[in-house]
């Protein structure tokens, strides 16, 4: 597993270990003699192929965070950390005999671009902005594994909600002070999924041989950003009425990153649902109350 120390990867590694599986992380250094790990360096194109032998499944979750100011160097890191790393893993396992039975490769709902209020499924076309272009190349980087007969699933993640990290943890301090609010009009859709559902969905894809190609890892009931911030404010019992003007986003992040933050996708997890996955948290408010251990009821 690459990205085994990240928000999703760390929790998934623990979940798999509790289920009796051995999880071997990919690490960007030489593996220590006493540890079970696989050394790799996507920037240099090196990976310990011998150590990959005998793996039943490979889960590739590594990637530079998209948050922050998108300088030319930042954009290159966003792209290369996804595309080069995925290609390196894919080519390495394609050369194994036998190869692992499945590769689960991270992608993102940014594949669709800014879709307004139009609902998108895995059959919808890709967008044209920077992150959509990255996602297309990211998914194409798994082609060597597919051509070698490995079942490949491209996991298009929505925003994963957890109080331990990611977008929700970043928003909480401001919202707890009553300083939260929508970005712009708030009409843009906010695709989300609770961390527990994201983990269960990954395990469902791992165990479902019929699932290959793109799979949206997103809750079935998308909300607008305005609905999201109002719900979060209600759960925290704090006002959430202060809109963030577009000019503030451009000053903080630059033009392209600001456009990304202000965009959205109304995502449907069509293939997960068709494959029999049942969500623990299909609705936002119960998910937030569980995540934040907020009391029931209230104003």
Descriptive report:
The strands form 5 sheets. The protein has a 4-stranded parallel sheet with strand order 4-5-7-11, sandwiched between helices. The chain has helices at residues 7-18, 49-52, 72-94, 130-140, 143-147, 166-176, 195-207, 225-236, 246-253, 255-261, 270-274, 284-292; strands at 26-27, 38-41, 46-47, 57-60, 102-108, 119-120, 151-157, 159-161, 189-190, 192-194, 213-217, 223-224, 266-267. The protein has one domain (7-292): NAD(P)-binding Rossmann-like Domain (Rossmann fold, 3-Layer(aba) Sandwich), CATH 3.40.50. 40% of the residues lie in helices and 15% in strands. With 299 residues, the protein is α/β, with parallel strands linked by helices.
In summary, what is this structure?
The protein is an alpha/beta fold.
List the defining traits of the structure above:
single chain; Rossmann fold; alpha/beta; 3-stranded mixed sheet; 299 residues; disordered C terminus; 13 strands; 40% helix
- How many distinct helices? 12
How far is the first residue's CA from the last residue's CA?
43 Å
The string of secondary-structure elements, in order, is: HEEEHEHEEHHEEHEEHEEHHHEHH
The shape is globular
Oligomer: single chain
Please describe the biggest sheet, giving its number of strands, its sense, and whether it closes into a barrel: 4 strands, parallel
């Amino acid at each position: 597993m690459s990205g085994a120390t990240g928000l999703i990867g760390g929790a998934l590694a623990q979940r798999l270990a509790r289920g009796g599986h051995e999880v071997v992380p990919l690490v960007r250094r030489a593996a220590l003699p006493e540890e079970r790990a696989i050394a790799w360096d996507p920037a240099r194109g090196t990976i310990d192929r011998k150590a990959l032998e005998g793996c039943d499944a490979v889960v590739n979750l590594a990637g530079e965070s998209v948050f922050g100011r998108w300088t030319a160097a930042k954009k290159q890191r966003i792209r290369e950390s996804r595309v080069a790393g995925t290609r390196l893993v894919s080519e390495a396992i394609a050369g194994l005999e036998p190869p692992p039975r499945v590769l689960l490769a991270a992608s993102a709902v940014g594949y669709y671009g800014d879709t307004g209020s139009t609902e998108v499924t895995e059959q919808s076309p890709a967008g044209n902005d920077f992150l959509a272009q990255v996602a297309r190349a990211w998914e194409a980087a798994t082609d060597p594994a597919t051509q070698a007969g490995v079942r490949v699933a491209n996991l298009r993640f929505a925003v994963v909600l957890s109080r331990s990290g990611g977008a929700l943890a970043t928003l909480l301090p401001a919202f707890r002070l009553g300083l939260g609010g929508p970005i712009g009009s708030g009409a843009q859709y906010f695709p989300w999924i609770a961390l527990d559902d994201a983990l269960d969905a990954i395990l469902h894809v791992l165990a479902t041989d019929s699932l290959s190609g793109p799979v949206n890892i997103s809750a079935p009931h998308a909300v607008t950003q305005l609905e999201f911030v109002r719900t979060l404010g209600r759960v925290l019992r704090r006002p959430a009425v202060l809109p963030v003007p577009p000019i503030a986003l451009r000053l903080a992040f630059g033009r392209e990153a600001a456009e990304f933050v202000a965009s959205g996708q109304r995502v449907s997890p069509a293939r997960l649902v068709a494959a029999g996955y049942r969500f623990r948290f299909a609705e936002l408010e119960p998910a937030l109350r569980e995540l934040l251990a907020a009391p029931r009821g209230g104003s």
